[in-house]
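User: Could you go from structure to sequence for me? I need the amino acid at each position, not a summary. Structure tokens:
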């Protein structure tokens, strides 16, 4: 019938024809389909095989809803004998092997979950949130199961919190492509070791040129052990954070020792001390300079912080090393937080100075982490890591998962 041909064309049932349409309760439409030819292909190798038997009952595949009606494709698949893979069920052109949803439905589900909450996507697709979560997990797992890392030269490592009570996940980034390549539970040495040992070959580890992380002994130790040719770079963001924390500790000490009248002069200094010299106004700078008469300890800590900003502008590693050695003379200061900071910078100076020659930072990973937090907030948090990891891979992963689906099944 002509209307069946129109339906087949709209549903892009290439090589198939519509045999019937039936309407059921709860706004359900079942569309019967079957192939034009008798030949069946193996889902593994694509070769034609001999039909062995046909299943007694038809099988349903959920498709994209139309006009508020739930659409199912109805077909009775056959078992064939492949010369290579033996007895196997024939290839279903509109769905993945073993899937109960069409590729068109899968593509729409993936795109929806990239842009909205799973609850909202489930309402649009006409399924429950729990069902959608299971379908999403199987779809992402299926498309990432055969994926292999390639061309990883600049990597970054950081951790993110995914649940209350200090539950963390380790994220590994490809800093050149600005994507997440791996997610592991925990932030200890065994977690990052599993990435290098199980996900990268010895040749891939040898080709890593630089790796950026914070001052975590677990991450630094793993990079030194598994990537002997990589230059270890300590993230500038975390170094600056350590400097700001040291200055703030000096401010806190002075606040605790000050009386009521002195606290009025110190009020509002916290965020002002954090500001970079290039973003301060003249009025703010004069306020800080007035500390030379009001509180010399805070003034001294602020001056040391401002002087250290010059380190990031050096182009020659030898000049930066000379400057850092001169700056760590703060060890002679009577400000204990600054002395502790100077000892930390001297201990990790090789990783800090590596920034001068590579200009590598975890700024890309911090930007990705902002998106990761949006994903977590959109779901109002996660109870376990796998659902969180699925959405991270879908949103900022190294594989464009929806793009793996054939273009003729893309509905957006």
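Assistant: Here is the amino acid at each position, in order:
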């Amino acid at each position: 019938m002509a209307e069946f041909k129109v339906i087949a064309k709209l549903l892009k049932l290439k090589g198939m024809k519509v045999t019937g349409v039936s309407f059921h309760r709860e706004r359900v439409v079942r569309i019967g389909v079957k192939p034009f030819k008798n030949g069946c292909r193996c889902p593994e190798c694509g070769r034609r095989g001999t039909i062995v038997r046909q299943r007694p009952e038809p099988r349903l595949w959920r498709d994209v809803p139309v006009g508020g009606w739930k659409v199912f494709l109805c077909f009775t698949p056959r078992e064939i004998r492949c010369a290579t893979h033996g007895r196997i069920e024939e290839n279903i052109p509109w769905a993945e092997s073993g899937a109960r949803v069409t590729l068109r439905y899968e593509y729409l589900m993936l795109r929806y979950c990239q842009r909205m909450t799973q609850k909202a996507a489930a309402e649009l697709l006409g399924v429950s949130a729990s069902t959608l979560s299971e379908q999403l997990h199987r779809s992402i797992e299926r498309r990432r199961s055969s994926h292999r890392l390639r061309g990883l030269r600049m990597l970054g490592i950081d951790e993110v919190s995914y649940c209350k009570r200090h539950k963390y996940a380790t994220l590994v980034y490809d800093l050149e492509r600005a994507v997440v390549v791996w997610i592991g539970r925990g932030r200890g040495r065994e977690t990052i070791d599993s990435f290098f040992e199980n996900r990268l070959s010895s040749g891939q580890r040898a080709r890593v040129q630089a790796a950026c992380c914070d001052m975590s002994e677990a991450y630094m130790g793993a990079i030194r052990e598994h990537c002997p040719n990589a230059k270890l770079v300590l993230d500038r963001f975390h170094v600056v954070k350590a400097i700001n924390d040291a200055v703030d500790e000096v401010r806190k000490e002075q606040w605790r020792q000050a009386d009521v009248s002195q606290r009025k002069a110190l009020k509002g200094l916290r965020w002002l001390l954090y500001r970079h010299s290039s973003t301060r106004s003249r009025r703010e700078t004069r306020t800080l300079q007035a500390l030379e008469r009001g509180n010399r300890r805070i003034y001294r800590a602020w001056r040391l912080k401002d002087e250290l900003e010059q380190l990031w502008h050096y182009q020659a590693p030898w000049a930066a090393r000379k400057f850092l050695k001169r700056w760590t003379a703060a060890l002679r200061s009577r400000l204990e937080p600054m002395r502790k900071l100077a000892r930390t910078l001297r201990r990790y100076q090789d990783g800090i100075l590596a920034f001068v020659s590579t200009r590598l930072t975890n700024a890309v990973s911090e930007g990705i982490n902002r998106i990761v937090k949006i994903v977590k907030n959109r779901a109002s948090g996660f109870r376990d890591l796998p659902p969180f990891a699925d959405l991270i891979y879908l949103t900022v992963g190294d594989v464009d998962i929806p793009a793996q689906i054939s273009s003729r099944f893309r509905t957006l």
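One structural detail worth keeping in mind: The mean pLDDT is 88.
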